[in-house]
Amino acid sequence: MKTAVVLTIAILANSVGNLFLTLGMRDLEGAAPAAGSWLGRTASHVVSDPWMIAGVILLIVFLSSYMMALSWADLSFVLPATAPAYILTVFLAKFYLAETITPARWGGTILIVLGTCLVARSFGGSQAAAASPARPGGGRS
Amino acid sequence: MLQFTFLAAVVLAGAAGDVSVSRAMKTVGEISDFRPLALLRSGLRAAQNGFLWMGIFWKTVAFFSFLRLVVSAELSWVVPATAISFVIETVAAKYLLHERITAVRWAGALCICLGVGLLSF
Predict the structure, then answer these.
(1) CA nearest A126 in B: which residue?
(2) Handedness of CA B21, B11, A59, A120 (dihedral sign)
(3) Chain pair A-B, CB pairs under 8 angstroms
(4) Cβ separation of B117 and A108 shorter than 8 Å?
């Protein structure tokens, strides 16, 4: 239950955070060109644009939930468990960024989620096999 | 072409960050006390771990590469395309770590490859 709640928060924060960051970057590109390098302008935009600030806060929420989950679950479980974020992000891009999602792109996204689940299943098997002995260092790292 | 260069930066730097942060958090141990002071104490303990800072560095590289990518590509392409990291991890596990990769995992990697290919149409 604890894992489900933390990973749901991670998925929502990641998808909405990506949307906000995209909206913020479009503000930067739409504005008049300013002096300085792209990196400098972007770094300054990250701390001044409301979309970027909200996006960064959500990414911090995502990273915190993710790190919390990693403290008790393996990376090989946590990574694929966030796969629904791909579909949620495509939905958000369609409705809030007015992106055209072709049937091929929907198909590609669904295949990616399916593939991620298959990869996760193979990790599940190897985790079950390695569940009894202690895992020095833990995870795949 | 530029899009694929930045996609590679997002994926590779992101993977390096994931592995570093994972290693740091395994050292810190499970977080079971969610009171602010206990969380702060866990945060301070994590901050003393070099792998956490390495992870933050790689995550920063991935973050700015991602920002550059969403300027020139659609978000609905960028986010699913980053799943290519699972394929890279599978190939790296097979050829660099000499792990035994199950047929299910190869099938998953193939699905992801096909999916990423379809995204561009």
Answers:
(1) B102
(2) negative
(3) 165
(4) yes
Tell me the residue range of the domain where A41 lies. 2-129
Q: What pLDDT digit, counting tens, does each position of A21-79 carry?
A: 999 998 887 655 555 688 888 888 889 999 999 999 998 999 889 878 877 877 667 77
* Structural domain contains residue A138: no
Whether B97 and B115 map to the same domain: the answer is yes
pTM to 2 decimal places: 0.76
Task: Report CB contact under 8 Å: A97, B115.
Answer: no
Query: Are B69 and B89 in a shared domain?
Result: no
Residues B110 and B64 in one domain: no
ipTM higher than the 0.85 cut:
no
Q: Which domain holds residue B109?
A: 83-121
Contact criterion met (CB < 8 Å) for B115 and A25: no
For residue A88, is it within any domain? yes
A53 min Cα distance to partner chain B (Å): 13
Amino acid at B35: R
